[in-house]
Amino acid sequence: MYGFAKPFLFALDAERAHQLGLASLEAAYRTGLNPLLAVRPGPLPTEAFGLRFENPVGLAAGLDKNGAHVDALAALGFGFVEVGTTTPRPQPGNPKPRMFRLPEHQAIINRLGFNNAGVDALVRNVERARRRCVLGINIGKNKDTPNERAADDYLHCLERVYALADYVTVNISSPNTQGLRDLQSEAALRALLGTLREVRERLSGVHGKRTPLLLKIAPDLDEAGMDAIADAVGATGVDGLICTNTTIERGAVAGHRHAGEAGGLSGAPVFGKSTAVLRAMRARLPELPMIGVGGITDGATAAAKREAGASLVQLYTGLVYRGPALIGECVEGLR
Hints:
single chain, alpha/beta, TIM Barrel, 8-stranded parallel β-barrel, 3-stranded antiparallel beta sheet, 13 strands, 39% helix
C-alpha cells in the first residue's frame, strides 16, 4: 500500500508529506485498515535498560514530536516507539522550508528546530494512548533558554513525563538548536546528567518506579569528544546511549542541489559515521546498553548495528523511503 502512496507523498513538500502521512496512518489505525500497511513481525523478545521489548526495532524520535500517534505507530509492529523531542514551552521551530529530500541518497536534511506543542500537550496525548509497546520520551530545551539554564528545561520535562515514560532520552545532540551540542562537553554534560540523576532518584521514590535515562549523542564526535562523553556517562550512571543523531557533514552528498542546506543530514549517508561512533562507544563502555540509529535501510544494515554493539535499533528516514515493510525486514535481519 505504501508503494502506491509514496509517489503522491513525494510530490508534496517534505514537511507537508510528513504531516499528511501521520494523519493517514492515524486514520488507517482508527478504521482498522492498518494491517494493509505492513505485516506485523513475529516476536523477537529483547531486554535492555531493565525493560523487555517485543522486538528490538523501534521508531526514532522526531516523527511524532507531540506523542499524538503512539498507538497508530505501535500497530505497525515496532517493538518500541520514541516520541518528542519535547520542550517545556511550545515553540514553532525554524522558518520554513526546513525539510529537504535527497532521494538519490535515501537521505533527508532537516532544520526543524524542536518544533513542538510543548511538554504539557505531549503529556495529554500520551495519557490518552493505549500504550501497546515500550514508550520512550525524548526531552530537550527551548531555543531561547541559555545553556547556563538548560538543566532547568530538562528537569521540567523529566518531572512532567517521568510517570508516563518507559524510558527518557536526554537530547543534547540536535544540530538545529544553536549551541545545544555544546552540552556534550565533559564539564557541561557531567553537571547536567548529575542533576538529572539526582532528580530521577527522587522521582523514583515518588512514583514507585525507576525510569531509565538515556543520552542521545551526535555522529560528529572526535576521539576526545567520545572520551569525554564516556567519562561523563560512566560517572553519572546513565542507563544507555543512543548512537546517533543527524550529521552536519555533507561529504557523502556533495554536489546535490540540497547539500548546502543547513541542518542535520539523516538516512543512508550517515550510516558509516553513526555506526563508527556506536562501535567506538561500545569499546569505551562495554557493559552499557546502546541503541543504534542512523542509516538503517534494510535488514542487513540493522544487523550491522547489532554487530557494532547495539542492543536495539531505531528507524526514521529509512521508513520514509521504504515504508512500514522495513520494520519486519529489520526484525528478520536481527533474528
